[in-house]
Design goal:
By secondary structure, the chain is α/β, with parallel strands linked by helices. The protein has 2 domains: about 240 residues, Alpha/Beta hydrolase fold, catalytic domain (Rossmann fold, 3-Layer(aba) Sandwich); about 70 residues, Orthogonal Bundle (Recoverin, domain 1). About 40% of the residues lie in helices and about 20% in strands. The protein has an 8-stranded mixed sheet with strand order 1-2-6-3-9-10-13-14, sandwiched between helices. Strands 4-5 form a two-stranded antiparallel sheet. Helix 3 packs across helix 4 and helix 5 packs antiparallel against helix 9. The radius of gyration is 21 Å and the shape is globular.
Length: about 350
């Protein structure tokens, strides 16, 4: 069963919330998806490469429902469902200025409080499924201690402060990670001319068009690495930071692929990183990380695991999935109706908790 509610946030903002749940009385568990960065809706409608349309969250709602687990999603502040590709959202610019990390934490708290007042959910365990930015917000909800949170399920895990993450991304690592997944056959950490010309996955033309190896090896050292990619991407980072400093939301709106504001970025840059937050938590934490996550490197998951081990803490489980991306190969379901190992692990973990 699907239901859409309007939940009043702490400041009265009307949060649009959708939840799917089994109609067999008391629901033992509910998973709340904590949004990643940028505009999101409770459906996250998208257009697939074959021209058909799908809702990102329908897959998770259906799969959790099979396991007798409720699933909840919500609209980002200032965002409503729209008709225009690629994101199918409409944005109220004034309301979107209130989309800030601090408000995102409070909004999740308001949603939890609302759900637990519903009879079927009154005694449910609450699991927060945070993805990308959601891996920053969900732990802060747990740390506040204002609402019931029984476990954290974190995918695309962000261990560092967002400014450090963006610096890593735009220092060539985001693009290189995507390229390595399909060209670095023996996991060297870079791409040789032999790798490039072998094109074993038949993606060279799609990724690079008619560009030669020499076009991409900008420093001429015989390999394609982060330094080569950074020559193209670092200027964009400098422009983002300049826009943040100048509160230039119009530049960010028109020039950055993800719709963000200077206020959102400034607040994120001031937050303590997860590597300082997670060790303060005692609830079960599960990290599901892709080997080729281009947004948050697998090193982040390895680093926090090492920190927990050094502290003697046993409430963290980290799993790194080979050949998985930031979305844990969600697209495998769209291509072949198959569930990736990483996403299957999330579903199984929620079921057995």
């Amino acid at each position: 069963m699907n239901k859409i509610d309007t939940v009043a946030a702490y400041d009265g903002y009307p949060l649009k919330v959708k939840y799917t749940y089994p109609e067999n009385g008391q629901v033992d568990k509910i998973v709340i998806y904590v949004n990643g960065s940028g505009p999101s809706t409770y459906d996250n409608k998208r257009k697939w490469i074959d021209g058909t349309f799908f809702n990102y969250h329908d897959f998770f709602a259906d799969e959790f429902l099979k396991r007798n687990i409720a699933y909840c999603t919500y609209n980002t502040r200032g965002v409503e469902i729209g008709d225009t590709a690629p994101f199918f959202v409409t944005i109220d610019d004034e309301a979107y200025l209130k989309y800030l990390p601090s408000n995102s934490v409070r909004d999740v708290e308001a949603i939890i409080n609302h759900l637990l007042k519903i009879g079927a959910f009154a005694h449910s365990k609450v699991y927060l499924l945070g993805w990308s930015e959601g891996t920053i917000i969900a732990p802060l909800v747990a740390l506040n201690g204002n609402v019931k949170v029984d476990a954290l399920l974190l995918a695309g895990y962000a261990n560092e402060n967002l400014k450090d993450i963006m610096t890593w991304q735009f220092s060539g690592n985001l693009e290189l990670t995507i390229w390595k997944k399909v060209f670095d056959y023996d996991r060297k950490g870079y791409i040789t001319k032999e790798d490039f010309e072998a094109d074993k996955n038949h993606v060279r033309e799609k990724l690079f068009g008619n560009k030669s190896f020499e076009d991409l090896d900008k420093n001429g050292d015989g390999k394609i690495d982060a330094e080569d990619a950074a020559l193209r991407s670092l200027p964009h980072l400098h422009n983002i930071l300049k826009a943040v400093e100048n509160n230039d939301d119009e530049w960010l709106k028109n020039n950055h692929g993800v719709r963000l504001t200077s206020g959102w970025l400034k607040e994120h840059f001031a937050l303590k990183p997860n590597k300082e937050i997670l060790p303060l938590l005692e609830l079960p934490i599960f990290i599901f990380q892709g080997e080729f996550d281009a947004m948050c490197p697998k090193q982040y998951a390895e680093d926090i695991k090492s920190k927990f081990d050094a502290l003697g803490k046993t409430n963290l489980t980290v799993t790194i999935f080979q050949n998985h991306d930031h979305d844990l190969n969600y697209a495998l379901f769209l291509f072949k109706k198959e569930i990736s190992q990483g996403i299957a692990s999330i579903l199984e973990t929620a079921e057995r908790l």
